[in-house]
Amino acid sequence: MATRQTHHRSALALSLACALMLPLAAHAQSDSREQQLEQRVAQLEQQLNELKAMIQAQKAAPVQPAAPAQAVAAAPAPAAPVFSSAPGVSVALHGFVSASAFSQSKSFTYGNGQNALFPVPGSSGSLSGVDVRNTRFWLDFKGAQFAGNWSGGGRIEMDFFGGFNGTGPYSQQQPTPRLRQAYMDLTNPESGTTVRIGQQWDLMFPIDNSPTSLAHIAFPLGFGSGFGGWRFPGVVVMQDLNHGSTGVQWRLDVGAFEGTWNGPGNNVNYLTAGNAGFRPQVEARLHVQDKNWLAYFTAHYSKVDLRGVGGTASTPIRSGVNSTGYEIGGQWKPGPWTFKGLAYTGNGLGQVFGAMSQFGDIKERGGFVQAGYGFTPNWGLYAFYAYSKPDSKDVIAWMGNGSTGLLRNRQTALSLQYTAGSYDLSAEWMHDKLDSTSNGTDRKTTTGNQLSLNALYRF
């Protein structure tokens, strides 16, 4: 009995001891956590002080310009190409879809619709239609490496003025594609030099100064009757004259193009008077441009052997022609206005659509002006005038030997255009007045009008 009481008392004492120790243990554990929190707070305060010191040091340090590599990295990424071909070469597809609903009071030279240039002398009868042949697409190639600092690229461009699929009742709705341009570029960004090889516009054509029109794109307003130029296989060297400088930019272009003429041999087998021997068309252009204006001066020369390849063709007037041409033009965009224009003179320019596409030793002069005003970012109005005056005596002297008796042409046009995003819409009126002769003594004036509604989508 005494033993049981002793064990019971011992257990009770042990229980009391444990109960008394629990608060002490909890207090010790609480003290440990508080010490850990105090240490963490001290660490955070130290890190905060270090961060403040770094910020103060950066503010006190001079600002350094960003490195070129950083600037490049910060630039927005270029748009991805449509697709690629060879390794490192990107290929982009661009172009536009064009449609014109038109009505004409006369038939026009080179065709009706979107390629109407000036009325056919003596023609009569009104007509209408819808034309989509201005539709165009091209492939731009970029990124090819050549050697050293030289890189390459190129373009293949086509539209639908290659005639029609046959001559049947359904052929007019089947226009045929034609090659416009096919060239390769070799570019040196260090020297500002570009060499272009292949079929391209010659330097007489105002590629960056052509008249604004939605109806007349491939065959612009005033083409052949106010300015000329054409696409030829050739080589052009373009050199920046003040490469790397700011402000006004100067460039010199020098080119040599395939010689050509109308006969006396096969026009599509290199047997014309321009192909006889080695007689390229040589041209040079000085181009200057700033932010809202540009100007240029172009010179052209070629020698044509009218005896043809083999030297056996008859030459009733003379055996050769020295083809020369000079052109000065420019563009100015003050505020909402746009002014374009050029003037030219020369002789024997039939191969570049001169003298209204008449071939011979024919002197001529002409030009065009256009004024445009943007009422809003979407609406614009454009007025155009072109003039072409071949020498009447020369035209008459060469009749039957390349001349068709066209003496003078005046063309006016007015268009109202609406632009929104990738779409352009316009209403356009063109009026043309042509003086001609059929035998050298009579005179005839033919006038023609074209009214068109036009739509264009760019992609």
UniProtKB/TrEMBL annotation:
Q: Which domain of life is it from?
A: Bacteria
Signal peptide (from-to): 1-28
Q: Coiled-coil stretches, from where to where? A: 27-61
SUPFAM superfamilies xref list: Porins
Task: Cite the entry's keywords alphabetically.
Answer: Coiled coil, Signal
Protein name in UniProt: Porin
Q: Which organism is it from?
A: Rhodanobacter sp. FW102-FHT14D07
